[in-house]
Amino acid sequence: VKIVDLETVYLSCPLEEPLVYARGEARSRDIILVLVHTDVGLTGIGECHPADAPLVITAVLEKGIKACILGEDPLFIERIWEKMYNNSLEYGRKGAAIIAMSGVDIALWDILGKMTNLPIYKLLGAYQEKVRTYASGGYYHSKLEGLAEEMSGYVREGFSAVKMKMGKADFRADIERVKTVREAIGDNIDLIIDANSAWSVPTAIRIMKKLEKYDVLFLEEPVSPDDIEGYAKINATIAVPLAAGENAFTRYGFRDLIQARAVEILMPDATWCGGISESKKIFAMAGAHNMLCAPHSFDSAISLAANLHVGASASNCSFVELDRTWNPFISDLLTEPIYIDGEGYARVPQKLGLGLELNEETVDKYRIEI
Ligand SMILES: [Mg+2]
């Protein structure tokens, strides 16, 4: 079997209400589909996170990676990964090149599943058929009342864990937000907060002391992803466990977080961190240090599925993130959306490979030529 073509499809959907968070705001939802075609008529579906730079990532795929994978046997996934990595070594290792590689790697696993008649999580050695998710939302566009309504709505839908954004408002206003949400959701729901790298180390420590009484399950990305020492200091100082990883890349980036004991929970996302192959290695490294993984997932039903397959094949997956904001790439991208049960668990797609079929109408509606 040979790879005969690599196709990238960019989809973008404007948002009526921007998603406001600590480091900026999203005015559209965007995804990059990666389709790997083979000479036996099978096509693997993958996806890359667009990272606010879809042109850059598409160029890496079209002008860099494509030539490097054409003619390869798609089942030599590990070999193709190393080839892509070495080919992009001087401009890659983090960011756009690894994100682009991630999409290809996911598509290769999809091909492997389709050729061997198995869903990916079983190819990886299954652990569970459904994975606990948390309802991810709580952005800054709503005032306190709207925030409370949104978060308690997730609880009414059956979620036992929710996540809200932090780090944009001033110190006291942010504390007020957490207080409001804790009161709205009650004492029995897990509450996660995400500062999107907005704080300094002293601010993070100071604010988390004040938040201790609100029983936060974990704090995500308090400071810059490049301040691993800062993470380690916060992690050793505050009672609430730290989580990070959406801005870490490959086994090497996660190794650094683990070695510094910078966090307790690692958040690899298969569409950024190097694909399913690399996520699996990160889960294994975390396991060797008695650490949990809670994959980040934001962009679409494809990234959700990729992360679910990895999470369902591991004993140390605590959650997969479930974006609950308005997102047609989660609700309308597949002919059969991913099923979330009444307790906030996502069922792993059972069909071959990723187990997904694209809804071509949605693809056509949001497709943009670049
Ligand atoms: Mg985050």
What does this structure look like?
With 370 residues, this protein is α/β, with parallel strands linked by helices. It has helices at 54-69, 77-87, 96-116, 120-123, 144-157, 171-185, 201-211, 228-237, 250-259, 275-288, 301-311, 328-331, 360-366, and strands at 3-21, 24-38, 43-48, 130-136, 161-165, 190-194, 216-220, 242-244, 265-266, 292-293, 320-323, 345-347. The strands form two sheets. Strands 4, 5, 6, 7, 8, 9, 10, 11 and 12 form a nine-stranded mixed sheet that branches. Strands 1-2-3 form a three-stranded antiparallel sheet, with helices on both faces. Helix 6 (171-185) links the parallel strand 5 and strand 6 (190-194). Helix 3 crosses helix 10. The radius of gyration is 20 Å and the shape is globular. Magnesium ion (MG) binds at residues 194, 196, 220-221, 246, 296.
Short characterization:
This protein is an alpha/beta fold. It has helices at 54-69, 77-87, 96-116, 120-123, 144-157, 171-185, 201-211, 228-237, 250-259, 275-288, 301-311, 328-331, 360-366; strands spanning 3-21, 24-38, 43-48, 130-136, 161-165, 190-194, 216-220, 242-244, 265-266, 292-293, 320-323, 345-347.
